[in-house]
Amino acid sequence: MSQRVGGARSVVRSGAMGVNLKGVKNLTDPHAGIPQPSRLTSRALTRLRFVLVVAVFALAAAACAEAPPLPEGADAQLVEGRNVWQARCATCHGPDGGGGTGPRLNEGRVLERYPDPADQAAIIENGQGNMPSFSSVLTAEEIEAVIRYTREIL
Ligand code: HEC
Q1: For residue 113, what are the domain limits?
Q2: What is the tally of structural domains in the chain?
Q3: Fewer Cβ atoms within 10 A, N terminus or C terminus of the chain?
Q4: pTM, full prediction
Q5: Which residues contact ligand 1 via a Cβ below 6 A?
């Protein structure tokens, strides 16, 4: 009789109970079974997160950048010129004409380079280097309007 009880006890101690306890311990350990990143990896992840946050803010700032507004009472041709500028030119020359892929055009630069607006029109119509031709994209009126915008507003 006593031997049987002893046998049962030893089974509980060394067998089933031991395994169960291990299982419970693993369940309560939040890191059990999940490989932890090395310190180097987590530092790289922190840096990546920082870069992503900065990139998102830069993109938001770029999306908000607008072409300079028109003075009150500006005529319809200038309104059209600003629309054409925003839609067709700002991506390369910068929303304010300060330059980008294309050269700076603002603060009187086009007046200096092209005293005769017809010379400026020729570049827009025909293109030049990496500047695309707009003769089949914009009407003569739109080109005239955007030229006025670059000369009078930028
Ligand atoms: C895809 C980019 C791109 C777009 C879009 C673009 N341009 Fe350009 N633009 C350029 C580049 C590049 C140059 C320089 C060309 C060269 O001389 O090699 C340039 C040059 C010019 C010049 C001559 C500048 C100088 O200093 O002589 C004018 C004027 C100009 N662009 C006006 C415009 C206008 C107006 C629009 C919109 C209708 C426009 N561009 C759209 C890229 C672009």
Answers
A1: 70-152
A2: 3
A3: N
A4: 0.69
A5: 88-89, 91-93, 101-103, 105, 110, 113, 120, 123-124, 128-132, 134, 146, 150
